[in-house]
Write a structure and sequence with these properties.
The chain has about 240 residues and is of the alpha/beta class. The chain has one domain: 3-Layer(aba) Sandwich (Rossmann fold), CATH 3.40.50. It contains seven helices and nine strands, in the order βαββαβαβαββββααα.
Amino acid sequence: MHIKPVAIFRHSPAEGAGYFAEFLNAHAIPWQLIRIDEGDAVPRNAQDFSGLVFMGGPMSVNDDLPWILFVLPLIRDAVAHDIPLLGHCLGGQLIAKALGGTVSANPVKEIGWGEVTVSDNTTAREWFGDIQTFDSFHWHGETFTLPQGAVHLLSSAHCQNQAFAIGKHLAFQCHVEMTEHMIDEWCEIGAKELAASAASPAVQQASVMQVQAKEKLPELHRVALQLYRHWLHGLAH
């Protein structure tokens, strides 16, 4: 069976597809990287792909960036044509904004490993199975509201809206796509930000994140696998 590629949007060189790319490769699903950070054009037609996936990035969806003006209608086009969306952090915020939600400052920056709790509803159980809590990775200063029709999936102590689903579309504030290499790279790039936020109760320092990665990544990958597998069922063949 011929399957169209999954489009993966990268907005920053260090925030690539991570574990999600490993997952697609393991399932022999073709994918195409759209490097917004290198000036790749935003596709106009969602139907050229079997799914659209948006990764993270240091910018805000409220920034005056030309590519955002093309991404928001593309997201709405995907919903109109039933093509599954998946958003990680900035990606989740883009989906929220495109579908009528708002993105604004979270009460605190949330950086590092932190427990998230799965919502007690039928949709959450469809996505997460019997998982009730897990340690996710976080690196964000903003948060989204839930767009119309969205079902709340996850919350943490420092951020109420950590994930939502609308049918086959899934959006995260947190990062379930992490690999050890990505965590190391972000800690290096974000050293100044970490130093500036050291007093915050919601911010871990690099050494702690990296040590905890050894024990927490295998479980995070198990959770991601569960979510990505469920997302895969919605792919347009």
